[in-house]
Amino acid sequence: MRIVFDASTHEDGQLALNECIWPGANLNPNIFHLIIYFHLNTIAITADIESAFLQISLRDEDRDAVRFMFPKLESNQTDPYKFQVYRFKRVMFGVNVSLFLLSATIKYHIEKYREQYPAATEMLDTCYLC
User: Fold this and answer.
1) Nearest-angstrom CA–CA distance, 60 and 49
2) Which GO terms describe its molecular function (predicted)?
3) Pick from 1, 14, 56, 92: most CB atoms within 10 A?
4) DSSP 3-state assignment of 69?
């Protein structure tokens, strides 16, 4: 199961979570350069990376910062306001900072192998995440 936060919803007169969080720096290459590069080559690769977010785990000490409440559903429940608190073990999907975290993680791993695989890391530098 993959929980997706709708961090752009809000109550009337209140801020949405996405309005309160800085989305991070744009780590994508310049879109103009990317389009030119796309047209210069005969092969282009696209992929759906939805499961990539599931690969980025959070450190134990950071998991308290990403808690969410879920209604506690019991058969004999009389109090409708009982909640169970859970903590994420993976990066939240659906929050404006998610794309930055994925881009930063990919770039971190690219840098680890730049000397060993220069051609592959050069190709990965031109990836655009959206």
Assistant:
1) 25
2) RNA-directed DNA polymerase activity
3) 92
4) strand
pTM of the model as a whole: 0.63
Task: Tell me the β-bridge partners of 90.
Answer: 57
Chain-centroid distance, C-alpha 19: 16
19 three-state secondary structure: helix
Kindly report, residue by residue over 26-77, the tens digit of the pLDDT: 777 777 877 887 788 788 777 776 677 778 888 999 899 888 888 887 777 6
50: three-class secondary structure by DSSP = helix
Rounded CA-CA distance 93/90 in Å is 9
CA–CA distance, 128 with 52 (Å, rounded to integer) = 14
Whether the CB-CB separation of 121 and 110 falls below 8 Å is answered with yes
Asked if 98 contacts 23 with a C-beta cutoff of 8 angstroms, the reply is no
Task: Answer yes or no: are the C-beta atoms of 55 and 91 closer than 8 Å.
Answer: no
The 3-state DSSP composition of the chain as helix, strand, coil percent (nearest 5) reads: 35, 10, 50
